[in-house]
Amino acid sequence: xxxxxxxxxxxxxxxxVFYPTETSKMFIDYFKTNxxxxxxxxxxxxxxxxxxGVVSVVLKKIxxxxxxxxxxxxxxxxxxxxxxxxxxxVDIEVRSGSLYDxxxxxxxxxxxDDISGIAEDVAKASExxxxxxxxxxxxxxxxxxxxxxxxxxxxxxxxxMLFFPILTLSNSTGILEYANSIFDSVEEVSxxxxxxxxxxxxxxxxxxxxxxDKGYIEVEEKFGMYIWETIIYKAxxxxxx
Amino acid sequence: xxxxxxxxxxxxxxxxxxxxxDDSIDTVEAWDSLAQLSILVxxxxxxxxxxxxxxxxxxxxxxxxxxxxLEKNDLISE
Lengths: 241, 78
Prior knowledge:
The complex is a heterodimer. Chain A is an alpha/beta fold.
């Protein structure tokens, strides 16, 4: 078992549960910065694809009074969140199941989608996903994100907001276009750059070039490294006019 | 770009109050590999994409080294 610490909060990460990523940190940073805008005891937040539950636990620890719900496809993750909630003395409703399945007929004010996809060939080549963690997001890494975007309307309240990440190790332009075709408003709220490890870049240069040419990933070669980005978007169905 | 601008870019990327010519990855706790990338991306934006062609910037892990390389490539002045 591993541990992960962020914002003075430590959570346990069980074996076979996805270790928190920089995307989770970006969500935490965003909701910490915008605490006054989103903290509301009468509103519910859903942490979708919660893994060890780090986002939910930290939000509660930094003072979010909202009802926190969290789910993950893994039963082991559910147990992991429950233990982390107990250790940190916070109240989180946890369920297990695929994507929105655990929350049939329920609606949320804020949905934090921490399920992101990367192009399958990159996922297979990298060590980010263990053998027991599925990453079936298709050739261009868009499949899971598109399913979440499709289904969100059934789980978001009228005034609700979805926060979702797009990694440019996927067809980020295609996913963004898809999101814009579904929601009335899609707005970038956070962006961070990362680089592929040098050994990975050298070993898989041909693959990276091939996937880039096909539009499956959108990386840039800068400073002798392959640079990719994670971008967090806020989406809702409220027409601006 | 003038040096003062570089100092401001580094301070913003590292989220620190002050930075000096003697600072480096060894003296600033927040200066890790991701912070280094944030510094480089900011420099690249400021130099309109010219910095990204300089591969040795990736391993310039101190303020002095960054200044030396940018000076060598005519991308910074006092």
